[in-house]
């Protein structure tokens, strides 16, 4: 077993245990410190709260590292299929450790936070990342996919506001809702056409053929599964956004009518 393999395995384990500690220990202490309302939540809400704290921590780490690799990693930019980047592999290893940790939490607290779509998402991503870590291929591509995680902090923050019973029309809630919709669309939906355009452009090339049928099929199929779910989630977010905008307009119209009566 070479040094690089030991590093990646160690990173996966370290990631797994770190996120478990955040879920079971750190989040309880930190959340109570920064948000007094946390202590008033029931057991089920606290479990989901802690799960989303872990999700936010993971998203910030792998999303920002993925963004750095996307913009500045010369080896990956020069050859997205075979470019060897140690940082990229470490980032995928961190994400893999998180996915296993979150799967364990989902199963253990299934009656509270169980979600079949998350299980499909996590298992699909883990299957794809296995090739990145084991075969050293598609490292740059795998990190590009991790840019999708940049939307998670805003999605989680929306849930935090809801759990703490923030008014739907509060400034913080509205701003976060707008950012959530925009960022989710940019990193998960707008990226789909150029991504599959690139996939089509390398189809049949020597670098693509070297991947072998299993990796070729796995690359395409896992991306399709994940992007179908991204589109489903985007539709759900869009419906919620449209509903809030409609309610805001009704609220403004009601206030205008009241002011008119007062005048």
From TrEMBL:
Q: Is Transmembrane given among the entry's keywords?
A: yes
Broad class of where this protein is predominantly found:
membrane
Q: Which domain of life is it from?
A: Eukaryota
* Annotated membrane topology: Multi-pass membrane protein
Residue stretches spanning the membrane:
6-32, 53-72, 92-110, 174-196, 208-229
The record's subcellular locations are: Membrane
* One biological process term in Gene Ontology: lipid homeostasis
Domain TLC positions:
44-246
Record's PROSITE patterns?
TLC (PS50922)
* This protein's UniProt keywords: Membrane, Transmembrane, Transmembrane helix
The record ties this protein, via SMART domains, to: TLC
Q: Which Pfam families match?
A: TRAM_LAG1_CLN8
Q: Which GO terms describe its cellular component?
A: endoplasmic reticulum; membrane
Q: What's the protein called, per UniProt?
A: TLC domain-containing protein
This chain's source organism reads Bos indicus x Bos taurus (Hybrid cattle)
